[in-house]
Amino acid sequence: MDRDQHPVWAVYDKLRTARLNVKYYCRRLQRLERIIFTLDVILLVAAPSSAIASLWFWDTPAGRIAWQSLSVVAAIIATVRPIFHLTRRVKEYESAIAAYRIMEYDLESVRQRIEQRGEYDAKLRSEFLRIVERQKAAELASPEKVADQKLLKECSDAVLSELPANSFFVPSTSRIG
């Protein structure tokens, strides 16, 4: 049997996929948290009770226009923000990340035992199949239906760099349990 056709690659491919999903959803969560932070700062700055509201600059003609514009933007943000369910989306990303991290950990454990035993036996295959069954929960936790292709490519390249094919142990064909 060719090295590339060995059944152990199912484990390694799932491991890389789990790692990809962890990286991807962590990056998406970072972006969302940055957006939330930016919106919060705008709302805080534009609040009439903020220290910024009392700055001398706002008493100038240009300052009054800037303050009115900032107030309009803040009002729009405050009105529209609940529609986007940002905190719910944060929780969804965190759930997906947790599910894929657990999967990644379990698959890494299987990978290490394959290397230690020098074979991919029936017990390891059975454990792998249980992990694949649990993968359904991770997929259900995925908050996106359409991926950001550019980010997906970046994360995919990073995973392939971290986990290249030559970094995995492939048992000899005589050792398939």
Core attributes:
177 residues, mainly alpha, 0% strand
Largest sheet: none
The rounded distance between the terminal residues' Cα atoms is 14 Å
Q: Which shape, going by the Cα principal axes?
A: elongated
Helix content, binned percent? over 70%
Q: Mean pLDDT, nearest integer?
A: 88
Number of strands: 0
- Number of H/I helices: 5
Find the structural class using helix and strand composition: mainly alpha
Radius of gyration: 25 Å
- Return the string of H and E elements: HHHHH
Number of domains in the coordinates? 1
Poorly predicted regions:
none
Strand fraction:
under 5%
Provide a descriptive summary of the structure in words:
By secondary structure, this protein is mostly helical. The protein has one domain. The chain is built from five helices and no strands. The protein has helices spanning 9-46, 61-80, 86-117, 122-141, 149-162. Helix 1 (9-46) packs across helix 5 (149-162). The longest helix has 38 residues, at 9-46. The protein is elongated. The chain starts with 8 loop residues before the first helix and ends in a 15-residue tail after the last helix. The mean pLDDT is 88.
Question: Topology of this protein?
Answer:
Layout (H helix, E strand, L loop, with lengths): L8 H38 L14 H20 L5 H32 L4 H20 L7 H14 L15
Helix pairs in contact: 1-2, 1-3, 1-5, 3-4
